[in-house]
Design goal:
CATH class of the largest domain: Alpha Beta
Number of strands: 14
Radius of gyration: 20 Å
CATH superfamily of the largest domain: Thiolase/Chalcone synthase
Oligomer: single chain
Distance between the termini: 27 Å
CATH topology of the largest domain: Peroxisomal Thiolase, Chain A, domain 1
Strand order of the largest sheet: 5-4-6-7-1-8-14-13-9-10
Number of domains: 2
CATH architecture of the largest domain: 3-Layer(aba) Sandwich
Helix content: 25-40%
Largest sheet: 10 strands, mixed
Length: 414
């Protein structure tokens, strides 16, 4: 049974901190999306060679010392930057906040691959002598690392863990944070997703072996969901973390509110390691709608997961057609066309790209669609140029992943 969210369980977003390949703050990121500015660039990775990637350029020393950056991980560094930015943006008096009541819930696609690859490479240079193996390896590779690094940096003594949810992880972190607030396991949550995926050659090699790694003479045009000439994924790094609070607490302190989480769902395909199942994807969206007490026609913007793989985009479009095919109100877009696939950060970054629509009343476009694939035709697709819309009230954010994990969240303008 899908239970609706009760009034005393209302959860709102009060802060946003992010780093994306085309922006290191929500305002810069949003400006890039509306201007059609891609963050994909040439990239070289060990063994694979020259390729393309979405690379972040945030100031990693803004909240960490050089020693801390060297000792920790790229995912942890991204998480610390995003968490600090989100807390600052929330306006909460951090010095007076009870850190025992702060929870950290961060979604990741994978963690530890980068560190293990680097250490193995290092010992090959010394005839596999394990004496050169870093004593930092274990804390770098434990599954809770990114969330744990945030607690160390911010002095948080409440619960923390990472949520392994493949490419649905950004949404999963947000959902977990909301649920822990509903259960009163914390009073203030830092939640979302991060990724260091471009630092591991295995990700690139794996997609290349599947024939799913994008290539294009112009890096800015490599990520092209829904386009007939799409040829695969652009791997990206990044992160987006939100501060979440119960509405009553946020209202009491006069916090600005970006939106309210009114519906969510997570489901499984149970059919294939990689190929998505549109029946289960549509069920996930429908469950989120039921939890929110909404119909498809109530949704103003759907942020798609589409990764620019030939089969994946078609399957998601079939699911979207099933749910939103008769809605004349709904606009549909894609953020990966600008930044590539940020893996564990994808869902949270893509939601952030659309949140400002509540204020500026613009739906950002999907770029790089020179010729729409007929199998990806959908009513309401916003292609190549932003579109002004009537006052939006609801955004549905899709995020799906390997082994058939599906997630959807619905945010309401407050």
């Amino acid at each position: 049974m899908i239970r609706s969210i009760q009034d005393d369980e209302r959860i709102v977003i009060t802060g946003v901190g992010l780093t994306a390949p085309n922006g290191d703050s929500l305002s810069d990121y949003r400006q890039a999306l509306l201007a059609g500015r891609s963050g994909v660039e040439p990239y070289h990775i060990r063994y694979v060679g020259d390729t393309l990637a979405g690379v972040c350029h945030y100031d990693e020393l803004r909240y960490q010392s050089r020693k801390d950056v060297r000792r920790g991980t790229r995912a942890g560094s991204v998480a610390i930057y995003c968490a600090q930015e989100a807390v600052r943006d929330s306006g909460i008096d951090w010095e007076k906040t009870d850190r025992d009541q702060v929870g950290v819930y961060i979604g990741v696609t994978e963690h530890g691959n980068v560190e293990t690859e680097n250490e193995i490479y290092e010992i090959t240079q010394f005839n596999y002598d394990t004496k050169v193996w870093s004593h930092h390896h274990n804390p770098r590779t434990v599954a809770n690392n990114p969330a744990g690094e945030v607690t160390l940096n911010l002095g948080i003594t409440g619960p923390h863990y990472t949520i392994g949810a493949a490419c649905a992880a950004g949404n999963a972190g947000l959902i977990q944070g909301a649920q822990m607030l509903m259960l009163h396991e914390c009073d203030f949550a830092i939640a979302g997703g991060v990724s260091e995926s471009i630092r591991t050659f295995g990700i690139f090699a794996g997609f290349a072996s599947q024939g799913a790694l994008a290539n294009h003479a112009d890096p800015a045009k490599a990520s092209r969901p829904f386009d007939r000439a799409r040829n695969g994924i652009v791997v990206s790094e990044g992160g987006c973390l939100y501060t979440l609070e119960r509405y009553s607490d946020a209202d009491r302190r006069g916090a600005k509110i970006y939106g309210e989480l009114v519906g969510y769902s997570m489901t499984s395909d149970a059919t294939d390691f990689v190929l998505p199942n549109p029946v289960q994807q549509s069920r996930c969206m429908e469950q989120a709608l039921r939890r929110a007490g909404l119909n498809a026609e109530d949704i103003d913007i759907v942020s798609t997961h589409a990764t620019a793989t030939p089969s994946g985009d078609v399957q998601e479009c079939a699911a979207l057609r099933q749910v939103f095919g008769n809605s004349k109100r709904t606009h549909i877009n894609n953020t990966k066309s600008f930044i590539g696939h940020a893996m564990g950060a994808a869902g949270s970054l893509e939601l952030a790209g659309n949140l400002p629509s509540f204020n500026d009343r613009v739906c950002h476009a999907t770029i790089n669609v020179d010729e729409l694939d007929p199998e990806c035709e959908l009513p309401g697709l916003v292609l190549n140029d932003p579109q002004e819309i009537d006052q939006p009230t609801y955004i549905l954010n899709n995020s799906f992943g390997m082994l058939g994990i599906n997630s959807a969240v619905i945010i309401k303008r407050v």
